[in-house]
Please model this.
Amino acid sequence: MRAFARTIVSAVAVIGATLGASAALAQAPAGGTPALVEGKHYTRITPAVPQSTPPGTVEVTEVFSYGCPACFQASGFVAKLKKSLPPKAVMTYVPASWIQAEAWPMFQRAYLTAQAMGIAEKTHDEMFQAIWRTGEIPLTDPATGRIRRPLPTIEDAAKFYAKHAGVKAEDFVATSKSFAVETRIGQAEKLVRAYRAESTPTFVVAGKYKVATLGSYDEVIGVVRALVDRELAEIGGKK
Model:
């Protein structure tokens, strides 16, 4: 219930935040990059979580769920963030599974199956649209806004990936039940705990810094970029 409450509060905050930049962002130095303050803009993760990206790069991670309305609202900003990252920064995604009543465990399995099949990146944005706009994956009733019953299944997700990624639905379902995907699920669960993520979306930089929930996603992007630049400077990378 705690995760559910935080998700709903986060969703409301996102909708409000998109109406304008926060006062904190307005006070940032020219160029929109905030003067970073630990405890205000980010918290330090101790011990740091090893990065999954190659040496010399900086990993930017979003902890998310396709079933999270706040993550859907943030998806455009995340795409903007990804495009704004320097060459030696890499965007990665870790799916959470907190809310069984909203099919988060299934969406976690679906993403990690798509990842194992090499189709997660090309279908990431379309998956959000299929759930929250087109109704291809029936999570909510558009007339009431309530969660449908029964919840969507991995077979529903397989139909989506068959249509949008050209894989066979039966192959997707089979892969979703494989040892490789079960291993990925275990790894994702460990990462979510290690990042101390308590709501979605949560952004982590270099496995060291968890970005705070700020007044707007533009401000979040500024903080992420500033932390990335700090890390690249430390490792001698080029921005």
Observations:
- The chain is about 50% helix and 10% strand.
- The CA atoms of residues 136 and 160 lie 7 Å apart.
- The domain at 2-235 is CATH 3.40.30.10 (Glutaredoxin).
- The longest strand covers residues 58-64.
